[in-house]
Amino acid sequence: MNSFARWAAVARRELSSALRRPSYWFLFGILVLVAWGFSTGNVRISSGDATVGGERAHITSVFAQSMFQSVLITAMGAWFLAIGAGLVLIRDAEHRVGEILHSTRLTVREYVWGSFVGAAVAFLVIWGLYLGLAAGFNHILATGEDARHIGPFAAGSYLYPALLLGLPQIVFFAGVPFFLGAWTRRPIVVFAFPVAVLLVVLGFLVSWSPSWLDPAINRALMFVDPSGFRWLDETFLKLDRGVDFYNTARLPLDTGFLLSRIMLAAVGLLAVEGAARNTARRLLHGDTDSLVVGFRRGRRNQVPSVEAVSKPASPGTTLGELGMRTTPLGFLAAARTIGRAEIRELIVRPGIYLFVPLILYQSVSQSLFALGPFDAPLLVTAGAMAARQFNTLSLLVCVLLMFYAVESLMKERAQRFADIYRAMPVHTGAMLLGKAAGNVAVAGLVLGTGLVASWAVITVRQLLGNPVGFDLWPFLAAWGGVMVPTFVFWTAFVTAAFALVRNRYAVYGLGLAILIYTVFEMNVGEPLSWVTNWIAWNSLVFWSDMGAFSLHGRALLLNRLLYLSLVPLLLVLALRWFGRQEFDAIRILHRLRPRALLRSGLLLLPFAVPPLVLASALFFGGRAGYEGPDAEEARKDYWRRNVATWTDFRMPSVSHVELDVDLEPGERSASVSGAYTFFNHREAPYSRLPITAGPWEPIEWTLDGEPHEPDDRSGLFVFTRDEPLAPGGSLTVGFRYDLQRLRGLSTRIGGSGQFILDSGIVLSAFGPTFVPVPGYLPELGVDEDNRYDEREYPDDFYVGETEPALGWGGRPFTTRIRITVPEEYTANSVGRLVSEEIREGRRTVVWESDHPVRLFNIVAGRYAVAEGRGTAIYYHPEHDYNVEEMSSALDAAREHYSEWFHPFPWERLKVSEFPAYAGYAQGFPTNITFSEGIGFLTKSDPRSHAAFAVVAHEAAHQWWGNILTQGRGPGGTMLSEGMAQYATILLHEEVYGDRYRIEFTKRIEDSYGNGRFVDTERSLVKTDGSRQGDNTVFYDKGGWVMWMLQQEMGRENLLAGLRAFIDLYHSNSDFPVVQDMLAVLRDFAPDPEAFDAFTAQWFFDVVVPEYRLSGVSKERGGRGWVVRGTMENVGTARMRVEIAATANERWFDRGDAGGRTVASPSHLDARTWVELDAGESADFQVLADFDPERIVVDPDVLVLQLRREGAVFDFPEQP
Amino acid sequence: MLEIRTLVKVYPGPVAALQGVSLEASRGMLGLLGPNGAGKTTLMRIVAGLLEPTSGAVYFDGEDVAGDPRRIRRKLGYLPQHFGFYPHLAGAAMLRFLLVLKGVHAPQGVKRLADELLERVNLRDAARRKVGTWSGGMRQRLGVAQALAGDPRIVVVDEPTAGLDPEERLRFYRLLAEVAEDRLVLLSTHIVEDISVLCPRVVVLTGGRIVADTTPRRARARLEGAIFEGAVEKDRMADLADRCEVTQAVLIEGRNRVRVHVPDGAPPEGFEPVAPSLEDAYLLLTRNRGAENGVAPPAGAERVAP
After folding, report:
1. What is the signed CA dihedral for B32, B36, B37, B39, rounded to 10 degrees?
2. Is A846 helix (H, G, I), strand (E, B) or coil?
3. Do A319 and B178 touch (CB under 8 A)?
């Protein structure tokens, strides 16, 4: 037999053994589900048109397959390859086959390489099966009417990514653990590798890409990313190239990337060679221990001489003289002894020192860099930190526990100690408990270290000026109360699974399958319910410092109790199955007879009852709660019965709202009574009047003061008067009812837009959450099953009277709202406070509108208040970090927006904080509500002014949303969100100067570049919010275009035009859209033709320039320097844009400037300009009387463009 | 008292490892002798509560230990045939751990007791070294120490002298003999010398059945006058084997030194009568299944169909 034949024999043996291993078949099972899941098209490249009939990115394209395969192999393959390849040599060592094998003609290299190839090929076989299945699902099963995400079959689309992105990863992810296994002979070290890879690749290399990152560093990171996803994303996916490109283009080969893939595979192969050398060294030196152990032993334990070891013992003493007696250990004492031994072993093993820092790095670093609305970084409070680490910590510690638990249960067998150990007079339960306690101590160590790390991070940041201090309670509650039960349950589950199957590969496969399924479902699929969410995944996503657990507390408590109650059952099963006495196969068959099974089942019943009861309570409680099928069906009924009749019904105006709301937050309840006065502002009479009410029973209605029973059409109450409501006439509808918000248990984790909770109350009159809403609400009861296509609007839809996009129809109305809350609460509503009294521990406030409004809301909480100039901030007393900045922003907004747009008509402007169970900010008249994550917990510093920005934006909605309410239809939302962004740009410039205006405009420019969808983007006048990417068009492009329009028209002309626009429409029953605004502004444009040209491309077309510099050079000439170069517009749009040659920094960082721009006196700049159409290029020349260091296109950030960082050229530094 | 009743063990395959073994023993040393695959280790593991029998029962002091192995663990000292220890623990620490788990205590404390036990098995100087660095013989001695520690009512030792050098084997004999004075020691081996030195009673097991339950002396006595020894040329061995039963043959300087069993007292030419050994008896028993040699297997050992 030649060398190749021997090598092949080893490889065949390993391949056949690996393919029989359960872990690979679990992987295969997962991949079948994944292939099927992908074939549905739910995951695809973010491009194309999501609307019905629109073109979609193919999941079968080479780009999509590259995306899937690159991530899948890293996320899943790394684990299974580590188990499959990393344990090969360890397993052979445990089975002690090495010396026998090597006594044959088999060389070490043949053995090692053969084993590696067998293990790696086994994975390749599974991967090949996956690709075949994926192709089958995609091209055979998923065709049909809704198969627009499937392109034509091309084998290359599957195989090319497998070769370019998959194969090098497979070699790398198999090779390195293979070496680690050979080197250390410690399974835990082998498992540390995929953990590290996952954390570094998925937690950093794939996701970390700030806009300021140096392109050279970015490229280097692309090359070191083993998954290859960063290269794919940064090169092709990040900036949308359009669906046509993704569906038809080939994936171009990039030499640098190709070399990096070859290097990656080479590292894997070198690792295998390293394993071969290490194994050879062991055999040569007869060293069966790891290198690490050997090294340590060599230093610490000098081996005594043979003579010393074999010195005869002193004769004459007998065993009897030792006086030994035996008293079997008690249960707990035995468990303690075993637990201590486990912990001692864990401490001396290297795994813990690899895992713990990796886990902490990942969880702590993730918690530090969370973003809130408007991509504003968030402050890290102790609660936020505990909550943000929750998912990562839970998942990684579960992975760690699985490895430790299985290896702990395996080790006696692996070390041939099992027979002695199992013959000990120790209760099996004590053995399992001791081992479990040792492993849970590992979890405790991770959590303890995580706690210390969190404390250190918060404390150090506090020393550096961060306002947030450390608080232990959130960690105790979130980690101790919610996470620890997960670990206890998971350890019990893994123990029971191992006791049943007694095979580490099967348990790893099963455990990983459960973990992957859980994370996949919670993040991509249907989130797990409280009954099935064993890991409490995402349960702390809605953490609130204002009252943790107040939304989902009861459900979460039951969920935790459910999984804790399963622990005794699992332990009993583990005790029954644990192989302390090896079962007899024939007796097992006897035990599987129905009668025996029934008897076993009855014995287990007492242990199964508590979890069954708790699961039932969660399941039925959820069904009966506010998210349950009954509630959903009631909403559907509302839609079914009324959609055809009432959709286009136009309501008369409400002229006055009288409301009395008695709130009991501890019970989530309210008693509501009140009346709406309707005024018929239209020309036709009303014989019927529909009002939508919530699930409040019974509702006592009155009509003009008399009891009335309207027609109940599944929640739409239709009032019929004998005498129709004539034009100019009025009628009053009264109501009284009790309500609960939110009633019962939730079914799964999720936020809630409005709530009455102990931690805070936020209610609005948008929908029937606490007050009836006039008219029929077409969105109520609509979900994926009955959603219809967005309405197609004709170009002139806005001509004539347009309905409002927000608020109740008709004219503005007055309000008088009486709110009663517990004394410690402060309750705010629209208008001004006219009375406040406290009686018997209850506070009653009355708010009256001092100027008509179109909507109203209520917000309440235990607040502190910061008064400003006609403004106030109501905040959670511990959230005072940004209050000063927010208050000054609110003051500035009130002052300057009043001057720029329209005088503020109300007496007082308030911002109130509410718990983060909802994540929005809403600008009701005079009463703005902010979720705590917005502004209050925004990480604001003198450079970003993030808290200022969010307040400036939301305050702007008093003008752009309330004083002027936009019309319903395309181009409507831009008038609220785009104008609010524009107002924010102006306020930055006014308060902080150019530097921070530039920073802000660049930030929202980035947001637009990254968030737009090339294929589906429509012009500003057509964007209606129905397509992906519309939000960034409303907000960011809208704000930017107004900023550019200001350059076009001149600031004062534009502001005068906007004032005229608001004057025209603010009390009009015709609600405007963008076209209405442009019609007004044109009259203020100094050059109407230029205005038309500008609006034609920026409002009625989709354009955006992208500038590139080339051939830039400088030379001394005359009295200064001449810079020459070529600029090209590789994007679209025709804009005049400046080019500056600059030297030295432009701005100063001066702490005493209060955050205002300070220009650097040493800054030098010389400019020219060019005007380029799409695809045009032009040479330019800049004359400078200084030596320029940099060429910057659009230095003042006046023209919206893509990839601004590419329109900069730095001259090399002079030696 | 140990009572084994009609013990049957069938492994998947199927392989009938025990085919109805019955046995009783009270105190002293009971040797289990048999060739490889005879079922000795299976029997020992069932007695130690580590293996569930297919049928049959094992009682110790009247308690069913096969049905509920917990009952024997507190009374058991066990040394398996193949075993290891936690390699990262030092010998003394490993033994202390086991002593604590067994609930062994002594007036001098567990730490000193562990040291003294290690001294008894001549491991004092290696006590602070990690077990992973020890030789096979040293590990075997640590195994012996833990098996004999405490006050076990029954000691089950499976191939205990494998890997021990002659000196250590003698030391082990001494320890085991001491232990066996007032309790039951079940010693399984295929080394006949172990049995002949230690065991007043020997049970021979082959093919999953007991083929003899006797004493070494009785076994030898039954062959008295029937064993002859002589030298035979290599090419005459086949003829000799046809004519009489060869118990042992050792090739010395090109000639076979052969012992034969001749029940009728008429030895081949050149053969002299010699004193029978236990090894002769064992070999004859395992080869001829006992009954033919006048040592009947105990009743109840029925064949179990695979």
Report:
1. 10
2. strand
3. yes
Identify the pLDDT of residue B294: 40
Q: Is the pTM of this model over 0.90?
A: no
Interchain proximity A313–B124, CB inside 8 Å: yes
Contact A314 B116 (CB under 8 A): no
**What's the whole-number mean pLDDT along residues A861-869?**
96
A184 φ/ψ angles, rounded to the nearest 5 degrees = -100, -25
B162 touches chain A (CB under 8 A): no
Q: Measure CB to CB from residue A419 to each of B80, B149, B179 and give the nearest one.
A: B80
What single DSSP character describes residue A684?
S
- For residue A584, give the nearest of B52, B87, B120 by CB distance: B52
What is the number of other CB atoms lying within 10 angstroms of the CB of residue A493? 25
Find the range with the poorest average confidence among A231-235, A378-382, A767-771.
A378-382
Are A187 and A86 within 8 A, CB to CB?
yes
Phi, psi of A47 (to 5 degrees): -155, 170
**Is the CB of residue B183 less than 8 Å away from at least one CB of chain A?**
no
Rounded Cα distance between A565 and A25, Å, is 31
- Residue A1164 in contact with residue A1094, Cβ under 8 Å? no
| B175: Cβ contacts below 8 Å, ≥ 6 apart | A319, B120, B121, B144, B148
Q: DSSP H helical segments within A703-801, as ranges?
A: none
Instruction: Please tell me whether residue B194 adopts helix, strand or coil conformation.
Output: helix
pLDDT the model gives residue B98: 93
Whether residue A1035 contacts residue A981, with contact meaning beta carbons closer than 8 Å, is answered with yes
> What tokens does A226 get?
């083993």
Confidence at residue A52, expressed as pLDDT on a 0 to 100 scale? 47
Q: pLDDT tens digits, residue range A537-586?
A: 988 888 899 998 999 999 999 999 999 999 999 999 999 888 788 888 88
Tokens coding A330: 């008690």
Single out the residue of A396, A366, A397 nearest to residue A384, CA to CA. Answer: A366
Tell me how far apart the alpha carbons of residues A1128 and A1172 are, in angstroms, rounded to a whole number: 7
ipTM of the modeled complex: 0.87
* Residue owning tokens 């019609």: A1079
Phi-psi region at A791: left, alpha or beta (left = phi > 0; alpha = psi -120 to 50): beta
Answer for the pair A922, A928: CB distance below 8 angstroms, yes or no: yes
Neighbour tally for B297: CB within 10 Å: 21
Cα separation, A18 vs A27, whole angstroms:
12
Cβ contacts of B160 on chain A, cutoff 8 Å:
none
Asked whether the beta carbons of A827 and A664 are under 8 A apart, the reply is no
| Banded pLDDT at A184 (limits 50, 70, 90) | confident
| A539 close to A485: Cβ distance less than 8 angstroms | no
Asked whether the beta carbons of A944 and A376 are under 8 A apart, the reply is yes
Q: Over the stretch A386-434, which tens digit does the pLDDT of each residue have?
A: 988 898 889 888 988 898 899 889 888 888 899 999 999 999 999 999 9
CB neighbourhood size of A1127 (10 A): 23
Q: How confident is the model at residue A439 (pLDDT cuts 50, 70, 90)?
A: confident
Structure tokens at B297: 């297997």
B231 strand-pairing partners: B257
Rounded Cα distance, B150 and B152, in Å: 6
Residue A293: list chain B partners with CB under 8 A: 88, 132
The number of beta carbons lying within 10 Å of the beta carbon of residue A815 is 23
Q: Identify the residue among B52, B139, B167 best suited for mutation to test binding to A, counting A beta carbons within 10 A and taking the highest.
A: B52
Cβ neighbours, 10 Å, residue A295: 11
DSSP character string of A619-683? HHHHHHSTTSHHHHHHHHHHHHHHHHHHTTPPPPEEEEEEEEEEEEGGGTEEEEEEEEEEE--SS
CA distance A354 to A180: 13
Predicted local confidence at residue A882, as pLDDT: 92
Measured between alpha carbons, how far is A469 from A471 in angstroms, rounded to an integer?
Answer: 7
